[in-house]
């Protein structure tokens, strides 16, 4: 599991050898997600079991990922990934992160998104 730390307000992954990595953007990789990143962008959804808006969010993000080539949708159970939830300051579900091809978080939102908003947010990532 990755080690996370704050660096000037930004969240960066720490090195296992004790050296600190420098960075200004939050970055997530396939090992963190347990799934491959999309070639162009990734929609990461943090959900919980009894969250009704999470089900609707899953549907919207799945549709958008199916429409836009190179975009992946990854859903993460917030309760099962508490270290990542804490590291990324996920406070409620659903929380959606839009990652670019390198895994940098370019946009985040909480609550059920509208399809048009998701497509617009992807414009920043691709």
Automatic annotation (TrEMBL):
InterPro entries attached to this UniProt entry: Thioredoxin-like_sf, Thioredoxin_domain
Region named Disordered: 1-20
Start and end residues of each Thioredoxin domain: 41-120
The protein's name: Thioredoxin family protein
Organism: Streptomyces violaceolatus
Organism phylogeny: Bacteria, Bacillati, Actinomycetota, Actinomycetes, Kitasatosporales
